[in-house]
Amino acid sequence: VGGNASSVTDFILVGLFPEFQHSIVLNFVVIFIYILAFLGNLLLIVLIWGDSRLHTPMYILLSQLSLIDLTLTSTIVPKTASNFFTGKRTISWIGCGTQSFFFLMLGMSECLILTLMAYDRYVAVCIPLRYLTIMSPRFCLHMVAGCWIGGSIGSFIHTVYPMHFPICGSREIHHFFCEVPVLIKLSCEDTSVYQLVVVVTSIVLLVVPFSLIIASYTLIFLTVLCMNSVKGRKKALATCSSHLTVVSLFFGPNIFIYMTFASSHSPEQDQALSLFSNILTPMLNPLIYSLRNKEVVAALMKLVGRCGVS
After folding, report:
1. What local confidence, expressed as pLDDT, does residue 51 receive?
2. How far is CA 184 from CA 23, 83, 136, 220, in A?
3. Per-residue confidence at 287, pLDDT binned at 50, 70, 90?
């Protein structure tokens, strides 16, 4: 009886683009991207924590971004791949809630980390003489802890509440993982008020941070234009352009997904944007930051040199 009772509460994940003819190729590509993202972000974390020259606020924040990306992809891809290759498409109510919680927690934390990274660059470029005073190790530790705690609290609220909406019909989720906008579509109750709450929360966690980031970089570019040193100007622009690329890749899809009502976009749009934002972007982030960053490249050469000697 217990088995039957638990199976009634299970959800069915339809997986990645179920109508796509070459789904096995698509799943292998996603797994390959996941492996690259996992190894790339892990390598970046090892480089930052293994090289004392990179123990600065900017790189500590970058290591947190890599940790988030590494964990985010691991929250989604292994379950998606397991469901596809075993043919078992179900996910338990608890499993769905857990996946949704970690996904939201990491996403919200990333919003705040990216904002903090923009503030770090603003202080470094615009008020460099006060940089060490403002971006002290203690301040960074408190800010990073605040990002994780804030993400956890927000995620807990937005996981527990929608998971208790009654589902009268099909428990089939037209997605490859459990995500709030998709879960809302299954409810037979009027969820328009809650969807409005999601939009308001998105304004706080997406639009406000994005606006602060744009304001920071506007001030940075104005300061850079006034620099006499060509070398300093190039270095500031290289670092900031890397960050702005990551910001655009993260905020663009998420603003569309969370700031519009769930009924206004199709399952295919949800899947495509989630695939881009949550799997492809975490693979690109280490490349964006490392290829244009001499300090990271130097740390990598140092690590390769050590391995060669050993």
Report:
1. 83
2. 26, 22, 42, 40
3. confident
Strand 90-91 relative to strand 172-173, pairing: unpaired
DSSP state string for 83-143: HHHH---EE-HHHHHHHHHHHHHHHHHHHHHHHHHHHHHHHHHHSGGGHHHHT-HHHHHHH
> Tens digits of per-residue pLDDT, 186-211?
888 888 888 888 888 888 888 899 99
> Chain-wide mean pLDDT for the chain?
85
What's the whole-model pTM score? 0.87
| Structure token pair of residue 70 | 């590494």
User: For 6, what's the count of Cα atoms within 13 Å in the CB-facing half-sphere?
Assistant: 8
**Residue 221 is inside which H or E element, if any?**
helix 208-225
d(CA 271, CA 256): 12
Q: Classify 172 as helix, strand or coil.
A: strand
